[in-house]
Specification:
mainly alpha, disordered N terminus, 16 helices, globular
Length: about 400
């Protein structure tokens, strides 16, 4: 836990402060980590493993991935990651044979991230030059860093609360059910959330340079696009929850379908809350408002877990997450109203909801065929995905085309 704390702290220092400030912070973090290993005997036995994994901190700092994100070099970042992950996989399969090779496994993991960040460091001269200095304005950077770090820490507690409370209040069986459901929805969230990640630098630039009109236009298009993508994903998980669980885990985990359906619905609010927070509040320098929103949601989530888990087990934790994500979305929206009014378009929302009915009927038709889980999901996707976009186009919903045109600005 302490090691995770230091890594999270360094991640935010890397992203939001000057190079010399970051390097001093890295030194302090390593000293703090050394102190933890010195004074906590339970950690000391994992010393070699912890030091191996912590070697990635300095490479992450030097990699300055945030700089490449600002310049929207996502093609380069993707290619770099793929190459080093393949290298890491080759080393893993070559040298890691059994449980005694745990340290080797850690090194193969570090190689993937360290190598990628080393390439980043060597390419920095394309954009800037930097040198180490003893003089830096730590007062200017410290408060925003601490606010963003607190935001990250509260978010970590928010995400971890369900599993932790399930483990304390029930048994490992229900923790396993919830973990299966949450991993699938987390994967979908990361996939759909890529829309937010790749547009935040541009939105921040628009907000800072061209004023409200350009920012409002692109941000509304992103909100419409997120709704258009998230609604059918939630609908599919609601209709095919059991088949997806069996396909990704095993028949023994079929009871996790209820939790997956609820988390699928939560996906819509989670993505919109993420969008309002990362694409509106943070570029508008309202980090404290973002911290307030996620703090309120965390309190709601933990409180509802205490009420719902004893009666409904993993489904209760999923329902608490659904309600907490709704609170996050609403809180971020109302806090962001000062900077931008970005409710999704009513007409486009209506067309997406109507189209979700088609997707749901296709999923029900696939279930009626009595095929296996894999064939059912494949058959439903084969008909639902193309049909969804065709019907959207027929209903006059041109979100994808508008987003493509709107994202081109000089």
């Amino acid at each position: 836990m302490l090691f995770t704390f230091f890594c999270a702290f360094l991640e935010f220092l890397t992203a939001f402060s000057a190079a010399s400030f970051v390097l001093w912070a890295v030194l302090l973090a390593y000293l703090g980590l050394a102190a933890c290993l010195l004074f906590f005997s339970k950690l000391r036995e994992y010393g070699p493993l912890i030091w191996t994994l912590s070697s990635g901190i300095i490479f992450t700092t030097l990699g300055c991935e945030w700089l490449y994100a600002i310049h929207e070099e996502y093609g380069y970042l993707a290619l770099r990651n793929i190459c080093f992950q393949i290298l890491s996989l080759i080393l893993l399969l070559t040298y890691v044979k059994d449980k005694s090779d745990l340290l080797l496994y850690a090194w193969t993991t570090v190689v993937g991230s360290a190598g990628a960040n080393l390439i980043n460091f060597l390419r920095l001269r394309k954009y800037c030059t930097w040198s180490f200095t003893w003089r830096f304005s730590w007062q200017q950077h410290l408060l925003p860093i601490l606010v963003l770090f607190a935001n990250s820490l509260v978010n970590l507690l928010y995400v971890s609360a369900d599993v932790a409370q399930l483990g304390v209040m029930t048994s490992d069986y229900y923790v396993g059910l919830y973990s299966v459901a949450s991993k699938v929805t987390a994967l979908l969230k990361q996939l759909l959330g890529a829309v937010i990640v790749v547009t935040v630098p541009r939105l921040a630039c628009l907000y800072g340079q061209k004023g409200g009109e350009f920012f409002q236009k692109l941000a509304r298009q992103i909100a419409d696009l997120l709704v258009m993508l998230a609604l059918p994903a939630a609908c599919a998980l609601f209709a095919l929850g059991e088949e997806v669980v069996i396909l990704t885990a095993d028949l023994d985990f079929a009871p996790a379908a209820g939790a997956m359906k609820l988390l699928g619905l939560a996906l819509v609010f989670s993505l919109l809350g993420w969008f309002y927070m990362a694409a509106v509040l943070v570029p508008a320098r309202q980090e404290k408002a973002a911290l307030l929103a996620i703090s309120i949601a965390s309190v709601v989530n933990v409180s509802l877990n205490f009420l719902l888990i004893p009666a409904f087990k993993e489904a209760g934790a999923a329902l608490a997450t659904l309600l907490a994500d709704l609170v996050t979305c609403l809180a971020c929206y109302f806090l962001a109203k000062k900077s931008a009014r970005l409710l999704p378009s009513g007409k486009k929302l209506a067309s997406s909801l109507l189209d979700c009915l088609y997707a749901y009927l296709v999923c029900q038709a696939a279930l009626a065929k009595g095929l296996g889980p894999g064939a059912t999901v494949f058959w439903a996707a084969l008909w639902a995905i193309p049909g969804y976009f065709v019907i959207l186009y027929m209903l006059g919903n041109r979100v994808l085309l508008e987003f493509k045109r709107g994202s081109r600005w000089e």
